[in-house]
Amino acid sequence: MRVLVLGGTGFIGRRIVERLHERGDDVLVVHRGMHTPDPWVSVDHLLTNRRNLGDHKDAVREFDPTAIVDSYALTGRDVEHGLGVLPEVRSVVLSSQDVYQAYAGIRSGRCTSPVPLTEESALRTDRYPYRGAGYEGVPEDYEKLDVEQLWLARGAVVLRLPMVYGPHDDQVREDAVLRRIRAGRRQIPVGVGNLLWSRGYVDDIAAGVLAALDFRDADGMVLNLGERETVPICTWYEQIVAAAGADLELIQVPDDVVPADLSRSRAFAQHMLISVHRAEELLDWTPGDPEQRVVESVSWHLEHPPNSRWISEDNEADEHALQSA
Questions:
Q1: Cα gap 22→208, rounded to integer Å
Q2: pTM greater than 0.85
Q3: Measured between alpha carbons, how far is residue 211 from residues 97, 151, 192, 283 in Å?
Q4: Does residue 259 contact residue 318 with C-beta atoms inside 8 Å?
Q5: Would you call 82 helix, strand, or coil by DSSP?
Q6: From the CB of residue 178, how many other CB atoms can be counted at a distance below 10 Å?
Q7: Which of 60, 64, 132, 178 is the most exposed place for a label (fewest CB within 10 A)?
Q8: Helix and strand totals (H; E) in the chain
Q9: What integer pLDDT is reported at residue 313 of this predicted model?
């Protein structure tokens, strides 16, 4: 294939591009040039902001894509800037499971949806969930529901992603545990840790994207991707500790003293547990064993610790919480 990838230099998009290149596809990565891996695979690059894609119609036409992957559309405007330029070919767009009403339940502290979540589960009725939150890199009009609506009208496959982890994770989701291991801590203060939030290993997610490009039965449909089985959040923390070979104990403390970076171990009324049955059936796709994936991910992160902005030596919150145990 000749695959045009919008985004494609960050965490998930990066692995998608690498997998496409590994199997011999021609790839054109459309990005701003701000996060290009070095060294990286040999692919073509079109450096532009999405809103200026219309200025590069000739470059898109010359590449003549037979498939498109939109790996980083955050708003409806992101999609609109490209629709008039991109040809109507097989397309896959990455969305999020935050489109479900269950996510509103997570944020409100109420149970709003039964689980497991399927593609027919209720969607959020409140729009623009991060408006006013001031999250770095998240626009005020972030809304994956808008992204999905526009791409589905073009017959794209929409893949709703879970909490994704693995090599090059820019949100370093496992590091709440690993940073304490690196600091030599012997105890971690956590809450009850009952939350069931589906996760996905980045390589399995990339494999799902490639399958969605290859198998046309899912065109114009929504599919959930993620792991087949999900353990509660504190069991996941224990798996991370075991994979790191650390002598460290999780100590349960009251929710109101759980450190902020371990907040997902607090008690939750709503879960984000999803079913991936449709994706397995339509795409001939099977995710890997979750426990083995944690081992692979932890091994990589121990060899590649995050940069200084993710490292905290402040143990005061931990000590305060442990005194309440």
A1: 15
A2: yes
A3: 19, 18, 37, 6
A4: yes
A5: helix
A6: 22
A7: 132
A8: 11, 11
A9: 55
